[in-house]
Write a structure and sequence with these properties.
alpha/beta, OB fold (Dihydrolipoamide Acetyltransferase, E2P), DNA polymerase, domain 1, two-stranded antiparallel ribbon, 37% helix, globular
Length: 359
């Protein structure tokens, strides 16, 4: 969805942690360069968390015996005779054949018309909005049949178009239509996150939504506003502001089309609760993730900041709190534990609390 081309290393089958590994992700072209990899090199691999294979070391050129008579795990012989060769970084997108660009450590296709990017963007939209039964395979089928070419097209699908697809019937079609109908009214933060812009996850989307309140205000800023208008927002730096603005610009047609088909509700400027008008900073290790703690604070009307200052009300300190704890103690700021925080929140707990994807 972001256009990043992820290189994958094909290796001779190896048993690692009880699993046969033949493909190892290299994450980005920067990793290929960092490891100095060439075709025919011998490498050391591991499985991070016993799940994801990773190359951790390049041992240099393999000997000729290692390169000969290599077979895949299914018994098929390698289709090419292995020899020492430089890895050639592609210049064209393997999906749409448009020119690729270097973006830091990443190689990207920047065309929003790329079919592979369209597929991933639509799939991400459905996944982030937690639509059941609308996955990558169905999206690919809808694209192949010419029934959709954008996110907005999902909302124009008719029952008979879906039910006539392979392995789909009335029940499945009803489910798809029902899931789409559930997402015809979205909060601004959910909408922004579901667009799938690079580095704009649910928390960052929430920050922008809280600042602008309406989609119209965002579009006005994108058309005529300055980056400096949003870099003053806590947690938003110049790079993220630029990425957000460019992401909206590139998706303007898609946004306009969606605004004709679904409702984008104004973001609440304030979430009332037991923590109204109070600021918190989170530091150290906790039983809950920091995002979960931050969302609980926001649900209760509080504000989360990233640094300790005299204006801070509370520091939520866990194990290995470090320098923030020392600074807070020096400023006389109230220190509380994770348990104490949730005890403070508890009186305002209600069924209307927002989830991660609603911020």
């Amino acid at each position: 969805r972001t256009g990043a081309i992820t290189p994958v290393a094909r290796i001779a089958p190896q048993m690692v942690g009880g699993v046969t590994v033949e493909n190892v992700t290299l994450h980005n072209v920067g990793e290929v360069e960092r490891l100095g990899l060439k075709i025919g090199d011998k490498v050391t691999i591991t499985r991070r968390g016993d799940v994801i294979p990773k190359i951790i070391e390049n041992l240099g050129p393999a000997n000729q015996k290692d390169l000969e008579n290599r077979f895949h795990a299914n018994g098929d012989e390698f289709s090419i005779q292995l020899k020492q060769e430089q890895i050639i970084i592609p210049q064209l997108c393997p999906a749409c054949e448009r020119e690729l660009v270097i973006d830091g450590a990443f190689l990207r296709c920047i065309s929003l018309e790329c079919e592979a990017r369209t597929n991933r963007a639509i799939t991400y939209w459905c996944r982030s909005l937690e639509m059941d039964g609308i996955g990558e395979k169905l999206v690919e089928l809808l694209l192949d049949k010419g029934l959709i070419s954008s996110i907005a097209d999902l909302y124009s699908l008719e029952h008979h178009q879906i039910s006539s697809l392979e392995r789909m019937g009335d029940k499945s079609a009803n489910n798809v239509i029902e899931e789409l109908n559930k997402t015809k009214n979205l909060s601004l933060s959910k909408f922004l996150h579901a667009l799938g812009m690079e580095r704009i996850g649910p928390e960052v989307a929430s920050v922008f939504a809280q600042h602008f309140i309406t989609m119209e205000a965002i579009l006005k800023w994108v058309d005529s506003g300055e980056i400096e208008q949003v870099t003053q927002i806590d947690g938003i730096g110049e790079k993220v502001a630029e990425i957000f603005k460019l992401g909206i610009q590139k998706r303007r047609q898609s946004i306009d089309d969606l605004m004709e088909l679904i409702g984008i509700n104004d973001e609440d400027s304030k979430h009332s609760g037991s923590l109204d008008n109070q600021t918190f900073c989170i530091t150290g290790s906790h039983s809950r993730g920091r995002k979960e703690i931050a969302l609980a604070i926001k649900n209760a009307g509080g504000k989360v900041v990233g640094s300790v200052s005299k204006n801070l009300d509370y520091l939520v300190a866990g194990e290995k709190a470090g320098s923030k704890l020392i600074t807070a103690e020096g400023l006389g700021i109230t220190i509380m534990t994770e348990t104490e925080l949730f005890e403070k929140i508890k009186p305002q707990k209600s069924s209307t609390s927002k989830t991660l994807f609603e911020f």
